[in-house]
Specification:
The complex is a heterodimer of chains A (114) and B (113). Chain A is mostly beta strands. Chain A is 0% helix and 51% strand. In chain A, strands 2, 4, 5, 6, 9, 10 and 11 form a seven-stranded mixed beta sheet that branches. The radius of gyration of chain B is 13 Å and the shape is globular. Classes of the chains: A mainly beta (114), B mainly beta (113). The interface between A and B is medium-sized, with 26 and 28 residues.
């Protein structure tokens, strides 16, 4: 069974540009989470999607946005990139739609902003 | 305001000995706790969890202890093996919450041969 897949693996952008990251959850999982892991920090909760709807977002500015498609895959968009957006972006999926269960993570997308 | 804290950024343990990783939390609403393990260039993988109704959960070499009154949990690995070298994240959640999991900053465990 395929795990959570993310693309691209690496992405290099310059300040002010937009970045789009993609995630395919484990088959059967309807919940998708996005986390940011910046250098020296733990995993910071970004967004939670379930059944195509945004259920919750973390303490990030509105230029971080995303969506979930009918096939439950998800996209994270970061607009007006800033240097501090350089981080590993991790997507996770879950069967638990209450937001409390075990998460299965992808390998992440490393975004570098120059 | 960090709700889940792992105060040791790194820990070095000899192979065969016990590794003890610690985690403290501040939010008394948390009722489910998990440990994740992360190798470089890979996503975190689930290791073991514990519900707040228990004080211990064991899975092979891994045991998690929960002390609710102290808001403290620990992960014991015995015996420690070279493949255990990784970053370990403590995470917590609350029933009915919509915050996903709240993670600590991680502890880098290094198993010395």
């Amino acid at each position: 069974e395929a795990g959570v897949t993310q693309s691209p693996t690496h992405l290099i952008k310059t300040r002010g540009q937009q970045a789009t990251l993609r995630c395919s959850p484990i088959s059967g999982h309807t919940s998708v989470y996005w986390y940011q892991q910046a250098l020296g920090l733990g995993l910071q909760f970004l967004l939670w999607y379930d059944e195509g709807e945004e259920r919750n977002r973390g303490n990030f500015p509105p230029r971080f946005s995303g969506r979930q498609f009918p096939n439950y895959s998800s996209e994270l968009n970061v607009n007006a990139l800033e240097l501090e957006d350089s981080a590993l972006y991790l997507c996770a999926s879950s069967l638990d739609t209450r937001g409390t269960g075990e998460l299965f993570f992808g390998e992440g997308s490393r975004l570098t902003v120059l | 305001d960090q709700q889940v804290k792992q105060n040791s950024p790194s820990l070095s343990v000899q192979e065969g000995r016990i590794s003890i990783l610690n985690c403290d939390y501040t939010n008394s609403m948390f009722d489910y706790f998990l440990w994740y393990k992360k190798y470089p260039a890979e996503g975190p993988t689930f290791l073991i969890s514990i519900s707040s109704i228990k004080d211990k959960n064991e899975d092979g070499r891994f045991t998690v202890f929960l002390n609710k009154s102290a808001k403290h949990l620990s992960l014991h690995i015995v015996p420690s093996q070279p493949g255990d070298s990784a970053v370990y994240f403590c995470a917590a959640s609350r029933s009915g919450g919509a915050d996903g999991l709240t993670f600590g900053k991680g502890t880098h465990l290094i198993i010395q041969p």
